[in-house]
Amino acid sequence: MLQLPDSPPRMKTLVSVDESYKLCRHLTAKYAKTFYLGTLLMSPVKRQSIWSIYAWCRRTDELVDGPASAITTPETLDLWEQQLESIFAGRPLENYDVALVDTLQRFPMDIQPFRDMIAGQRMDLYRSRYETFEDLYLYCYRVAGTVGLMSTEVMGVDSTLYTAPWHQNKQPYLPTEEAIALGIANQLTNILRDVGEDAKRGRIYIPLEDLEKFNYTEQDFFKGVVDDRWRALMRFQIERARQFYTTSNQGITYLASDARWPVWAASMLYGQILEVIERNDYDVFSRRAFVPQWKKLRTLPLAWMRSQVL
Ligand SMILES: CC(C)=CCC/C(C)=C/CC/C(C)=C/CC/C(C)=C/[C@@H]1[C@@H](COP(=O)(O)OP(=O)(O)O)[C@]1(C)CC/C=C(\C)CC/C=C(\C)CCC=C(C)C
Ligand SMILES: Nc1ncnc2c1ncn2[C@@H]1O[C@H](COP(=O)(O)OP(=O)(O)OP(=O)(O)O)[C@@H](O)[C@H]1O
Ligand SMILES: [Mn+2]
After folding, report:
1. Whether 184 and 74 share a structural domain
2. For residues 204 and 179, what is the distance between their CA atoms, to the nearest angstrom?
3. From ligand 1's centre to the CA of 144, what distance in Å?
4. Most buried among 8, 128, 152, 175, by the most CB within 10 A?
5. Does the C-beta of 293 come closer than 6 Å to ligand 2?
């Protein structure tokens, strides 16, 4: 009898590149009003590539932070990392991955920041405290500094700055440190905004050494005590986050000219969350610091002006 070969593994039929970018766009618009607004200021090609990166980052974050996080184990993240390798090898496994594969063809990128992001999410599986700022910095680098590196590859640098005859070195300056700094600044802001939400899950991201410095205990934290010790501690954290914004803002001028407006916008909009925290008298336990849409829109012309002159 004729021996038929085993049927080949059934390949999942995936959506087209255009459809996949649409999915990524919807995910970005749904989850990130601030960053989505920033992407609308970009050129169409850069914009859709950022959506594909956003979608991958968000889905990575959801594995440990979303509704399905209860069933996420280290093995889930191992599989996710294998899926990442497959994306970088040009083989998308899911509909969202199709756009990222396309983006990687257009903007070749290093896989390491993507792996580091998974390592950062892994930390959330087994850590709920950070002793020192150095410990927290590593976490912030992994989950957010990496986003700065990925985004910079898409946004590109301004090479016209370096073609003048008096420039010895024609290599454009890569604002790597500044890109990482914006990720760190955003993540520190995010941590301060979400203190109450994280406390409900038994998590403290603020370094314990800082709590101690301000004589504020873990018990105070879980009771949501807002007093002068807490306010001083929060002022210290806000100041630290602002230093990272300052560093990052100095790098924006090196980006391609069409990327400066969206990045100024993202930096200013996210930075405004810190001002809202101050206005709320540092109560991040019972109130969520939130920037209304009209205020976000009002920031855009100011961001545009900065992108032209700074
Ligand atoms: C407009 C623009 C350029 C945006 C980049 C958008 C992008 C690809 C974002 C990915 C964000 C993401 C889902 C990361 C996963 C881990 C995570 C959740 C990090 C936090 C983001 C905030 O999200 P959100 O407030 O929605 O958090 P909740 O989960 O809802 O609590 C982070 C705070 C990290 C964000 C970090 C960045 C956007 C990096 C920014 C840096 C640059 C764009 C580089 C600019 C270059 C120079 C030279 C300054
Ligand atoms: N005061 C609030 N309390 C509870 N949830 C809120 C509050 N304000 C907004 N949300 C919800 O929390 C999520 C985050 O809102 P936010 O305004 O921070 O926008 P976002 O989409 O997270 O943008 P980004 O974080 O990029 O600024 C949204 O889904 C929003 O519906
Ligand atoms: Mn959000």
Report:
1. no
2. 26
3. 6
4. 152
5. no
For residue 89, tell me if it sits in a domain.
yes
280 and 199, same domain (yes or no)? yes
Q: From atom 25 of ligand 2, which residue's Cα is the shortest distance away?
A: 32
Q: Note whether 103 and 50 are within 8 A (CB).
A: no
Expressed as residue numbers, the domain containing 177 is 127-156+173-310
Residue 304 lies in a domain: yes
Separation between Cα atoms, residue 22 and residue 124, nearest integer Å: 30
DSSP 8-state symbol, 255:
B
Q: ipTM of this model?
A: 0.83
CATH of residue 201's domain is: 1.10.600.10
- Taking the centre of ligand 2 as the mean of its atom positions, its distance from the CA of residue 57, in whole angstroms, is 18
Query: For residue 288, what are the contacts with CB-CB under 8 A and spacing of at least 6?
Result: 193, 196, 197
Protein residue whose Cα sits closest to atom 13 of ligand 1? 58
Atom 19 of ligand 2, residue of closest alpha carbon: 33
* Same domain (yes/no): 218, 292: yes
Indicate whether 92 and 201 sit together in one domain. Answer: no
- Regarding the beta carbon of 83 and ligand 2, being less than 6 Å apart is answered no
Q: What is the pLDDT of residues 161-204, one digit of tens each?
A: 666 666 677 678 899 999 999 999 999 999 999 999 999 999 99
